[in-house]
Design goal:
binds alpha-L-arabinofuranose; alpha/beta; ten-stranded mixed sheet; 10 helices; eight-stranded parallel β-barrel; 25% helix; 498 residues
Length: 498
Amino acid sequence: MSDVQITVHPEARIDRIAPELHGHFSEHLGRCVYDGLYHDPSSTKTGVRSDVASLLSALDIPVLRWPGGCFADDYHWEDGIGPQEDRPGRRNLFWAQGREELPEEPNSFGTDEFLQLCEQIGTEPYLAVNVGSGDPQQATDWVEYCNYDGETELADRRRENGHPEPYGVKYWGIGNENWGCGGQMTPEQYAREYRKFATYVGSMDKLLLDHDLELIACGFEGHEWNRRFMEEIGTNAWGVEFPLDHLTLHHYYGRTITIEEADTDAYDTFLCEALEIESHIERIGAAINAVATTRDIGVIIDEWGAWHPEAVAESGLEQPGTVIDGVSAAAVLDIFNHHSDVMTMSNIAQTVNVLHCLVETEGENAWARPTYRVFDLYAPHKGNTAVETSIATPTRAVDDDELPLVGGSASVADEETYLTLTNLDHASAHAVDVTLTGEVTTNDVSGSLLFGDQSADTVVNASNEDDFEATTLDCMTVADHTLSVELPPLSVAGIAVR
Ligand code: AHR
């Protein structure tokens, strides 16, 4: 007997799921860049770790944000170009101190290394410019260095540094958390800074490039801030709007749950905190709509994920990679699908070794974390059209909240419907009936299951990584338009229906 009923409505289309919703974020912080993405250049041509690059290429990650984070608002991009031996070591006010043996930023990994890594793994770069301690000139110069094809000194420097063709960087973030580490600004102050930066970067785009940049403004989880920012942004003296393509915020969850000490109540609280991302998407979307009624501004969550108490500056923000984190990521990706009509990108923090990373390294080893398996299982949704689902599920009371014990999302493309399901219940398996309405046929159904026999706190390492691979979802029956699936506690399933 099923205790969960899900109805998929293939005709009730939400919107295309931008592949960028599966994006990533990497910062000069702890072992994310040095030892993570990059190591001693003498061992490979570029210094990029080939094991990490292969794992990322295999996942086909659509976009990678860099160099921060808080690091971005104290970063001067010109320190990181040209011959490596000539690059200055710098202190950066943020994060470098998290790693005892590297108290300073050596700048060996800079713009060209990052952009060539993106070319190597086939991902779109997203650069965050320095608003906090930088100026619009620096930002505009960076755009010119990366993207301009003419005969200027900056374009020539890029050529001398080994890249004759412009990189064509499309996404430019105007600062990072400028309500906090990026300058402690009020929304009005940041809006004025944004107008200045957008004027210069926007003119650069208009005059020298081909209107192909997308500018991203920083928002906040306190939504009054976003509304005030949007109001202040306004228009110029002639009523012309400033370039503004996306507004972003950050959502971290789990600061109260230490993996080793967590009990089952803590798992429920943790998952409720993860699901709060949905109200942030709705509220930032509402702040945009309240003011920008005539323009299309996308919602980005360009840092998100689990942040446990283990991740502190002294540990380089490292924390164990576990099943519960993987399950939380699946629930968040389902939410992104439900909001594909407003969401244009998201970036989980942070690609390698730091926070809710997908890949971990130790010496010469690199391996996939449980969350990597989740992104892989969810990959078929990318580029599909999300459709409405109705979900009737038992819930559990968690303080003032209710945890829905089963969730999911669905998308369609051509002849295929793809469905993902999460069992967020640590205590019980759930029997789920999924009804597919409309024209969908269930001739050919196949499914995969993650974490079916793993406990929530199982930690991945170099020798057990294969234990987290997806297995065939064999406890599924198909009758007419209904699939019946048994989901073990804290598990994730992906089902293709053709
Ligand atoms: O991802 C770690 C930090 O979290 C980033 O530098 C900052 O943007 C956020 O507060």
